């Protein structure tokens, strides 16, 4: 059977979440208990069911540890870049299709969104 997680890895994630102050905000009491108990009792997680639940908890922690700018890039930048690239292609600029995958352009759009003045829209 494939080893999914080690107790050391899970403990490192827990410490990082505590340092970033998201441990109590991202996970409920039961999830924190399962996570802590797993790190104390098991050296390597081999249960598929426990592994699936730990992946869900790790996703919650990962999402909670993201900065506001990274969230803006993911939620706004990608969609806006795709819309702008599509519109430019419709206007006849075929090479604009690459804009939707250009990380610099996506981050630029997110930067504009984060720094826009109230009442102004992009």
Report on the structure:
By secondary structure, the protein is mainly α. It folds into two domains: 5-65, no CATH class; 69-114, no CATH class. It contains six helices and two strands. The chain has a two-stranded antiparallel sheet. Helix 1 (7-19) packs across helix 3 and helix 5 (68-90) crosses helix 6 (103-114). The longest helix is centred in the middle third of the chain and has 23 residues, at 68-90. The radius of gyration is 20 Å and the shape is elongated. The model has no long low-confidence stretch (mean pLDDT 91).
**H and E string:** EHHHEHHH
Shape: elongated
Strand order of the largest sheet: 1-2
Assembly level: single chain
Low-confidence stretches: none
Number of strands: 2
- Counting helices, strands and paired strands, the structural category is mainly alpha
Q: Classify the helix fraction into a percent range.
A: 55-70%
Distance between the first and last residues' Cα: 51 Å
Main sheet, how many strands, which sense, barrel? 2 strands, antiparallel
User: pLDDT average, as an integer?
Assistant: 91
Strand content: under 5%
Over all CA atoms, what is the radius of gyration? 20 Å
Question: How many domain units?
Answer: 2
Q: Helical stretch count?
A: 6
């Amino acid at each position: 059977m494939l080893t999914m997680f080690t107790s050391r890895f899970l403990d490192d994630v827990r410490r990082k979440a505590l340092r970033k102050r998201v441990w109590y905000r991202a996970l409920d009491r039961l999830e924190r208990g399962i996570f802590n108990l797993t790190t104390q009792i098991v050296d390597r997680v081999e249960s598929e069911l426990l592994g699936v639940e730990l992946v869900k908890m790790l996703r919650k922690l990962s999402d909670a540890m993201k900065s506001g700018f990274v969230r803006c890039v993911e939620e706004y930048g990608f969609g806006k870049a795709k819309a702008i690239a599509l519109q430019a292609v419709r206007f006849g600029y075929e090479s604009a299709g690459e804009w939707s995958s250009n990380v610099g352009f996506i981050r630029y759009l997110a930067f504009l969104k984060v720094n826009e003045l109230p009442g102004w829209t992009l």
